[in-house]
Write a structure and sequence with these properties.
about 400 residues; alpha+beta; Aminopeptidase; Alpha-Beta Plaits; four-stranded antiparallel β-sheet
């Protein structure tokens, strides 16, 4: 547990916040810095075929120590943290033997992790909770996943009598900005199937994601002196607000859950003359996903008919699709992870991801890839936290998956 904690605390010190405005791959140099550190650590552990390419993908291999013909299992986590909250100068705090009270992250800034706001804290009484000091996110998404994978490999290597097939791992860049699989070499990776270690509370096991798209909107207004603006001015910001008001209010993230999709306004800036908006569009159901995109087009068409045909420009780009259709034909890999959880004393919680993982795109690239928990909460937030014992439970699940794959082959 101390080694797992030490690894995690080392990793979160490196700022790997991704940047969706960058023209480089990876989008930030901090991701390469972390990948280099990890490459050195994997080499010391004794892994082989370690490669870090120019686009920031770190891959490594634990060779088989058996002559059995076994499938190659992969484990994947991402290097970057969310661009929405700073990941620079993370000051992690460790609260051992948590007593169930509010956690003061930063007294001077009044950042308090309140049980009233986050009642799931009560599930961790007596355990060790790790947070930031509230001025940044923590980075458990997904440095907890990285620490879990590395620790699981160390645990396997520490036991020479542990029989296993080939295990491969990959740490990927820019997952948070939807580019985590852009340059992923599935053939080079060499896994028959894999798991992303990128989930939340203990027991989560996910093989369904949203279908996802991003919509960029540019609005052209007409700026005139307000004293002579009568029937001449066209305020781009008002058009943007009118467009937003046409979308169903109950289909926003804050009003949806489970399988309900949404429109999420992530950026809005402008002047009278020009405005820009960015929406992400999400739905688990392919038909509803298509309807959401079509409805946004119709809203734009309506406003263009009202204010002029060149007033609003809409560009929609699909980002990833629900991996369920690729996982169901090989559902035994979900059942394998479920059994590993049961065997290690964990109650599996099979549920849809209300988000995406690298596994969604990788599944459509020929690498079926369900998602497993890390023990983290409140990702992308200054109130992010992770439970150390839950991370250790994820380590045990990875080791058990490798053990079960071997045991199934007589």
């Amino acid at each position: 547990m101390d080694t797992l904690q030490d690894r995690f605390l080392d990793y979160v010190r490196i700022d790997t916040r991704s940047d969706d405005t960058s023209a480089t791959n990876p989008s930030t140099v901090g991701q390469i810095d972390l990948a280099k550190l990890l490459g050195e650590e994997l080499q010391k552990l004794g892994l082989s075929n370690i490669t870090l390419n120019e686009t920031g993908y770190l891959m490594a291999e634990l060779p088989a120590n058996t002559h059995k013909k076994l499938p190659t299992v992969g484990f994947i986590a991402h290097l970057d943290t969310s661009p929405d909250v700073s990941g620079k100068n993370v000051k992690a705090q460790v609260f051992a033997d948590y007593d169930g009270s509010d956690l003061v992250l930063n007294q001077s800034e009044h950042f308090i992790l309140k049980v009233e706001d986050y009642p799931e804290l009560r599930d961790y009484i007596g355990k060790t909770i790790i947070t930031s000091d509230g001025t940044t996110l923590l980075g458990a998404d997904n440095k907890a996943g990285i620490a879990i994978i590395v620790t699981a490999l160390a645990k396997i290597l520490d036991n020479p009598s542990f029989e296993h097939g080939k295990v491969v791992i990959a740490f990927t860049p820019d997952e948070e900005i939807g580019q985590g699989a852009d340059y992923f070499d599935v053939i080079r990776f060499g896994a028959d199937f894999a798991y992303t270690i990128d989930g939340g509370p203990v027991g989560e096991l996910e093989y369904e994601t949203f279908n996802a798209a991003i919509a960029h909107i540019e609005i052209e207004g007409v700026n005139v002196h307000p004293g002579t603006a009568y029937l001449r001015m066209k305020n781009a910001m008002f058009l943007a607000m009118e467009l937003n008001a046409l979308l169903p209010i109950n289909e926003r993230p804050e009003y949806t859950r489970n399988y309900e999709g949404f429109y999420h306004l992530t950026r809005f800036d402008g002047t009278v003359e020009k405005a820009r908006m960015t929406f992400i569009i999400r739905d688990h159901d392919k038909a509803k996903f298509a309807h959401k995109k079509d409805f946004l087009h119709k809203c734009v068409d309506f406003l263009n008919s009202k204010y002029g045909p060149s007033s609003i420009k809409l560009t929609i780009k699909d980002q990833y699709y629900n991996m369920r259709e690729k996982i169901e034909p090989v559902f035994h890999i979900v059942a394998l992870a479920e059994q590993a959880m049961i065997d290690t004393g964990i109650n599996p919680i099979i549920k849809p991801v209300r988000g995406g993982t690298d596994g969604a795109r990788l599944s459509f690239m020929g690498l079926p890839c369900p998602n497993i928990f890390t023990g983290g909460h409140n990702f992308h937030s200054r109130y992010e936290f992770v439970c150390l014992e839950c991370m250790e439970a994820a380590v045990n699940v990875i080791v058990k998956i490798v053990e079960l794959v071997t045991a199934k082959q007589k």
